[in-house]
Design goal:
The chain is an all-alpha fold and 419 residues long. It has one domain. Helices cover 74% and strands 0% of the residues. It has 20 helices and no strands. The longest helix has 31 residues. It is globular. The termini are far apart.
């Protein structure tokens, strides 16, 4: 039974961990995000909130294995020259800074519905960073657009993100029904995201794109055709296997193993490009979040909010989901709220609302979703920093606007079903 002291200890560890991860600029203290997450993870068992066994068990190895597999695949694509080709493709079609922003929103949003948001962020962040550096553009609007659009687009399908997969299993909603319901929500939210980012960064987005000597520097692209073909075939295989409903973690790591086996005679090169610190961040946060759950903080919150959900109000469910998703992340939030779905009225609409709100809630802060963290860490690995509050000025209004739009569309869907 959790005690008040355990609750207080878990809360302090949770807050300090997220301050270090989110702010990272504490005077006289230089701690990386990975170090901050690791310290928080160690503090939970050290101060008695968790046992060491509970801490080990808290690490979601499915997520870690999935990310590791996708990072290896992305590393092979990077070595093959795929990203340079993609970079050139985008550059040839971007006539202005605004059109480049539109391309980022459209491509990341639509592809995330199929490839999962984490995958798209892993693949696209190096491309976006290289583009903004070559074109001498402000990176913030494009990186924020990438992360936010990937999250929004992933809400469109049952395979777009892990929480949707979980909801699909528990709700038994068909792939087509889910897609039909959340397609207008996602497309409308992508348009909202583009408009908001364009307005917030209207000064940075003025003017044409700098020309790069008639693209001469791209005329000598070092493309390893054999490796590129193998990598693309493996990516296609990965997509097919995911759409067939196979476990994402085993699909990703198996495809990565295929690339290691057939893709290169120097497999250490892609392994050196894996972003190991981000895996430490995720492992640490899983332990910290489990400590918060075990201490009873989440149960306390859910017990108080559970009565609020009995009014058959999709807005109430969205607000509760938004709060809990940003406390323990979206997948644990779905796990915690699933038993309460029956209290929210029309069960199918409640599941759709939970999927929409838990996904869009990830756009609230820079550390609100795995996709955001991937963009953040990958960008910093390539020399570009994205600040917590820089993201928040877009993330906060965007989250509120998109969840509001989602609730309105789902209410309209409920009305049409009733008639």
């Amino acid at each position: 039974m959790p005690t008040e002291s355990m609750m207080l200890t878990a809360l302090i560890i949770f807050l300090l961990t997220y301050v270090v991860i989110g702010v990272q600029k504490i005077p006289r203290i230089h701690i990386s995000r990975a170090s901050g997450a690791l310290l928080g993870a160690v503090a939970m068992p050290l101060l008695g909130v968790l046992t060491p066994q509970e801490a080990y068990a808290a690490i979601d190895m499915n997520t870690i294995v999935f990310l590791l597999g996708m990072m290896i695949i992305v590393a092979y694509l990077e070595i093959s020259g795929f990203f340079e080709i993609l970079e050139l493709f985008i550059l040839k079609r971007a006539r202005s800074r605004t059109s480049l922003l539109a391309l980022v929103v459209l491509s990341s949003g639509l592809l995330s519905a199929v490839f999962m948001n984490d995958t798209i962020c892993l693949m696209f962040t190096p491309v976006i960073v290289r583009l903004v550096q070559r074109l001498e553009l402000s990176p913030a609007p494009y990186l924020i657009a990438l992360a936010a659009s990937a999250n929004i687009g992933s809400a469109m399908t049952l395979i777009g993100n892990p929480q949707n997969m979980l909801i699909g299993i528990r709700s038994q909603i068909s792939f087509l029904d889910f897609w039909v319901a959340l397609l207008p929500v996602s497309v409308g939210s992508l348009l909202l995201g583009f408009a908001l980012i364009h307005w917030v960064y209207r000064r940075e987005l003025q003017g044409p794109i700098k020309l790069l000597n008639d693209l001469q520097e791209y005329s000598e692209l070092k493309v390893h055709r054999g490796l590129l073909i193998i990598s693309l075939v493996v990516m296609l295989l990965l997509l097919v296997l995911l759409m067939l409903g196979n476990p994402p973690q085993w699909v990703a790591i198996s495809c990565a193993a295929l690339l290691i086996l057939f893709g290169s005679n120097r497999p250490h090169r892609p392994l050196q490009r894996v972003d190991w610190p981000i895996l430490v961040v995720f492992a640490g946060l899983f332990i910290v979040m489990h400590g918060v759950e075990k201490a009873g903080l989440v149960d306390l919150m859910v017990s108080h909010m559970g009565n609020w959900l009995t009014n058959h109000n999709l807005l109430n469910l969205s607000i509760v989901t938004l709060i809990i998703s940003n406390l323990v992340s979206n997948v644990p939030a779905v796990l915690l709220l699933s038993p309460l779905i029956g209290a929210a009225g029309a069960v199918k609409l409640a599941w759709l609302t939970l999927a929409m709100a838990s996904t869009f809630a990830g756009n609230l802060t820079l550390i609100g979703s795995a996709a955001n963290l991937i963009v953040l860490e990958s960008a910093e690995r390539h020399g570009v920093h994205l600040g917590f509050f820089e993201y928040l000025k877009v993330g906060l209004p965007l989250t509120l606007l998109t969840i509001g739009l989602g609730v309105l569309v789902l209410y309209a869907l409920a009305a049409s079903m009733a008639s």
